[in-house]
């Protein structure tokens, strides 16, 4: 039975796995990402591939990386976290491993994994949104990964949401990921706790007393304990998530949205509200079906599974 | 040589044409739209088809209409201008004419016409935006019309552009078409002329003296005569157009945009600025190609030509 | 003991009262406002004055009216609701009644009433905000009514709150009163109920089933019955109220705010949240006292009492 | 003839002057501000006072400092630039110099200087706005400095202008000074130059080639040489300045605005546009006088002259 390898290059870890045609991970391994040395990242990935390929007969390798990947799925044009510019990753890895390689945007790989084996099975048109420190996006349209003319589609986090809004790392103002992400959640919680420490007492206690030390973990724990400021911060974020989904639905009319990423671990605190906000702001509501808003099912392994499966396609 | 008929149902006129496989209109006719009597619109369309089919041997008919068309291209779910709700237009027209019928969103038909025979030839991924009183959108992705899961994709005018912004006919606040359209142009020109009649003297004179009587024609003429208020109104609109294109590019990474609609007749007054605004706000600029922003080439006949050509597809 | 008359000209009723130096209303009467006949409004006011002056010895009359009053407190420059333009109200009423007359903006009169005899006693710097269909504002600074250079200060409802926002009757976009008023409450509740009728079931039932028939009364009743959509609509409004108070505090640093107007009858549903939003957004919080946010105490009679008392000043 | 001393404590220099009753500076001196040692700042000020008081018989001293000054004009509650918290400046300086001291917010001192001897002579109600890296504000209402209930009025730069907007040093989002200041000008110019280097060629050349090295000086020089990107950056800033003035006029209805600060040195590039934007957005325009928007006349010495004159008042 045909096996392929999937790789997910993260900022801190390289995850690799041998995956079968049903999306099951037969074996996996993790290596630290040498993020301070971009030239060494490809070597680390090649080592992971070779270790796995020593034990299993694999046909091909799919590699997911955060960044702009060119339309031939070969070159990483720009990867902010890894300091890559026009990195010919496919060629390098092919030379180092002797295996067929495809390179894919990591959010696309995740979206494909969920489409084939997770929350998106059976949906031909879906939009995957990973809500972490920022936002990642993967589009599956008509049953295929949508990459755009030059491979740069799906940068959902950089729709402008607030004209003149919060400055984004991309250089623009008011990008969606400045409002609908874990970073936004922390910013709002810190600000509100500084403004009304009494109301945020639970959260501040968890964080050791100072607003600046509030992180996602404390907001989540405080929210579950009923802290009103934590709940407000989640509600703000949920409203912005819902708004962005409504914007995407007006353009792409997907059958469902799949939400993943670190913030989805606290989905009990915001998912219902995001669904409401989405439905409330959907243009043409009442005259159209409303897309499902679902949580991802594959968790952290979606990227490995999706990349491996994409390597299997012709 | 295979001929098909294309129909473009507008709010005031039904345009119909016999079109050949090269996109040339062999014969055309216009009929007034009985907009006050939605039940009669299908009859008028059928009459137009029969008149043309009497003189030419046609294989099929493509009908473009403003509104939400279902994913089977048969039923008009909701067409605000024609007061249709769940109108089974394909079935009705087939019964009345005996010809194969496909129903298509009018902006999709226009986009397809430009893709096949106009400004979009050779581009596999393009976004057509018609800027008139509102905004219409048609997506050609991977060389095919993109309709979405339920046929409702491409409602580009209803992305939220300004949170809490100007109320839109769709019920939401701050939709793109409230800022990047002819209506917005008129609203801004009237407001600025009321505030500073002296500065808007040229435009006011053309409009007969009162801000309320300023319409698109006067703004265009005044702009060409150098009226600073008219030019400011165009600049505002151009900035919002550019912003919206940048948002769409972050999601869909098209090879080009094609701008049409009534406001494009004054493109000399705003297109360069819209291009600048787009390029300036494009996320990842410097690390990616910048999509062309082009004017439509087929003018008012793009809808007829596109609908006819779509009828030819299997 | 010196008595004066206070008049409050509303859109539907003219309220008049004889008031003593302690702010007590000795006698009062109401007359319908002939709003369709602006020329008759002054006559109606004069009749009310004469009726009261027949029974009581009064020194002077204070007349509060919605609109721009000139800096000599004589002329109503512009009163949208009564169709007055440059109305010489003081002269007319003096001629008709033979009594000394001062004309005052109605929100200033209300603010003065609360300052002298209501919720603002003892505060030298206060800002009164009446939240009704729109917003009215009255400033008491350093123990005196603040009118501005030409009598037009205190138009608080027309600060721009959302750039490019909801169109205001004043011709601008995004004025505060488009977000922090009863009209905004109704707009939001209707919109949200249309989007999610199930969630708004209680409110819709109270309103007879259709979103369009929802008015303030139903939102209030539904909110008290726990309807989540009604509560969300109040929360939105409260957040905008709090934001506007924070803006005013950054400019004017008042000792307290006094909130009145029709929406304050439902203060149990939004006042606490408005206070929180204010405190959270106050610039320099932690380094300054936070102004009290209080409800008005005099209710509908504040305007009559305040106008009467202002007539007593030299 | 009575002389007083005025002091203007800036982030880099302490300016001091002996001023006569006509606002003329008889003698002046400058000392570097020991900004890294807040405890020493008062000593430096005291030395300056003593040096001047040795040669001139002075009655009193007015000290202007950036920060929140309490309502008794004695204590600096909070001065971000000098790291003062609850600094009893009046008491310290009185002890060190033996002279009567009043402490005043520096923008108030500047506003008073312009009111008494500069661009604001004869206007009873004026608003001074200093546009530098941020915004400072001073209010003269009814011929007196307006300080607010606790001395913290006039923080004009912290009105919220864009909900969810650019983060401000004060902890809030979207404050006016994030859009209508030299910092905003530089941010916009850098962003636009990065997006379209060709169009910003003049400005980039002046700045040595890279967007990051563009500062105010280069934007001004480039604007005067016709660089379109520099002119756009000034136009953006001017529009936001005009909007803020319109907001202030709706609240306070001043007779004039006086604009100063570093950015006013380039007023030829933006003042007319700011005036237009103000007039266009003024609520009730057409039914009210439009306040003058003037440049400050006293330049850098306004603070010293104003502080000295305020010391003269009882």
Task: Describe it.
4 copies of one chain form a homotetramer. By secondary structure, chain A is α/β, with parallel strands linked by helices. The first copy, chain A, folds into 2 domains: 122 residues, Nucleotidyltransferase, domain 5 (2-Layer Sandwich), CATH 3.30.420; 174 residues, 2-Layer Sandwich (Nucleotidyltransferase, domain 5). Chain A contains 9 helices and 13 strands. In chain A, the strands form 3 sheets. In chain A, strands 3-2-1-4-8 form a 5-stranded mixed beta sheet. In chain A, α3 packs across α9 and α6 packs across α7. The longest helix of chain A is centred in the last third of the chain and has 25 residues. The two termini of chain A are 17 Å apart. At the C-D interface, β10 and α7 of C face β10 and α7 of D.
The CATH topology of the largest domain in chain A is: Nucleotidyltransferase, domain 5
The number of distinct helices of chain A, counting runs of at least 4 residues, comes to 9
Provide the CATH top-level class of the largest domain in chain A. Answer: Alpha Beta
| Arithmetic mean pLDDT of chain A | 94
Number of domains of chain A: 2
Order of helices and strands of chain A: EEEHEEEEHEHEEEHHHHEHEH
Question: Could you say what the CATH architecture of the largest domain in chain A is?
Answer: 2-Layer Sandwich
At the fourth level of CATH, the homologous superfamily of the largest domain in chain A is ATPase, nucleotide binding domain
Question: Largest interface, with Cβ-Cβ < 8 Å?
Answer: A-B, 50 and 51 residues
Strand order of the main beta sheet of chain A, please?
A: 3-2-1-4-8
Q: So what's the oligomer here?
A: homotetramer
Q: What characterizes the major β-sheet of chain A?
A: 5 strands, mixed
Total strand segments of chain A:
13
Estimated helix fraction of chain A:
25-40%
* Low-confidence runs of chain A: none
Amino- and carboxy-terminal Cα gap of chain A? 17 Å
């Amino acid at each position: 039975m045909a096996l392929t390898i999937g790789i997910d290059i993260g900022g801190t870890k390289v995850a690799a796995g041998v995956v079968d045609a049903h999306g099951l991970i037969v074996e996996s391994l993790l290596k630290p990402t040498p993020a301070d040395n971009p030239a060494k990242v490809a070597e680390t990935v090649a080592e992971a591939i070779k270790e796995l390929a020593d034990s299993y007969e694999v046909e091909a390798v799919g590699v997911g990386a955060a960044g702009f990947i060119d339309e031939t799925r070969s070159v990483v044009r720009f990867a902010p976290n890894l300091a890559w510019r026009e990195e010919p990753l496919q060629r390098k890895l092919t030379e180092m491993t002797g295996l067929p390689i495809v390179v894919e945007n990591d959010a696309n790989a995740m979206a494909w994994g969920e489409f084939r084996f997770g929350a998106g099975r059976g949906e031909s048109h879906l939009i995957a949104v990973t809500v972490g420190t920022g936002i990642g996006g993967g589009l599956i349209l008509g049953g295929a990964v949508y990459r755009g003319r030059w491979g740069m589609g799906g940068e959902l986090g950089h729709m402008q949401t607030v004209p003149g809004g919060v400055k984004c790392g991309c250089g623009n103002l008011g990008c969606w990921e400045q409002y609908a992400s874990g970073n936004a959640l922390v910013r709002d919680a810190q600000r509100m706790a500084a403004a009304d420490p009494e109301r945020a007492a639970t959260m501040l206690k968890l964080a050791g007393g100072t607003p600046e030390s509030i992180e996602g973990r404390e907001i989540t724990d405080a929210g579950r304990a009923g802290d009103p400021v934590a709940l407000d911060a989640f509600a703000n974020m949920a409203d912005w998530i819902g708004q962005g989904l409504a914007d995407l639905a007006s353009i792409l009319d997907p059958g469902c949205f799949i939400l993943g990423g670190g913030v989805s671990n606290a989905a009990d605190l915001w998912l219902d509200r995001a669904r409401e906000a989405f439905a409330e702001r959907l243009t043409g509501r009442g005259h159209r079906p409303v897309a499902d808003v679902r949580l991802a099912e594959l968790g952290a392994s979606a990227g490995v599974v999706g990349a491996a499966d994409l390597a299997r396609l012709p």
